[in-house]
What we know:
Helix 1 (about 15-50) crosses helix 2, helix 1 packs antiparallel against helix 4 (about 135-170) and helix 2 crosses helix 3 (about 100-120). The radius of gyration is 20 Å and the shape is elongated. By secondary structure, it is mainly alpha-helical. About 30% of the residues are buried. The protein has 4 helices and no strands. The longest helix has about 40 residues, at about 55-95.
Amino acid sequence: MSEYATVFEVDTNISRFTKAGALLVAWLVCYTIASVSQSQFVLQNLTDLGVSINGNVWLEHTALDWWGLLPKFGGAIFATLTLALFISGKLGRWLKLQRNWLHPLAGALSMLLMLAIMHPLLEVTLIAGTRSFAGIVWQAIAGAVGGELYRILRQDLARWIVQRPKQNALL
Length: 171
């Protein structure tokens, strides 16, 4: 009996719409984690000062912060995350990485860089939830999650969507 190996040719060219969609989803998740975590740190600091905050007010302020921070903080995250993911994508192709593990690292570093740049430019800590080390760590986690989600959506999921019909056609 002879064994036949099936070879699948995969087109790795991913459309710009897929890349843009992956970027938008990654940014939305990154921004949501960053915004919600900063809100929780601020509300916890108020509670530590003796301010009584019930669950409805806690939830309301979290939602209002998400919406209120969207123009400036969301825009800053979008700009830095887009630049970081572009650079990590180019660097990953240059290094010929099978899976670009640089995207989560770039996402985390972009958040840290953005926070570091915002302080000297505006002479104020714009994001109050980042006044502690734990708050800064959560911002970096948000960037890493955004970068990893971008990698999954842009590389793995997109390749699976492109590859799957070709595999089914050969069966």
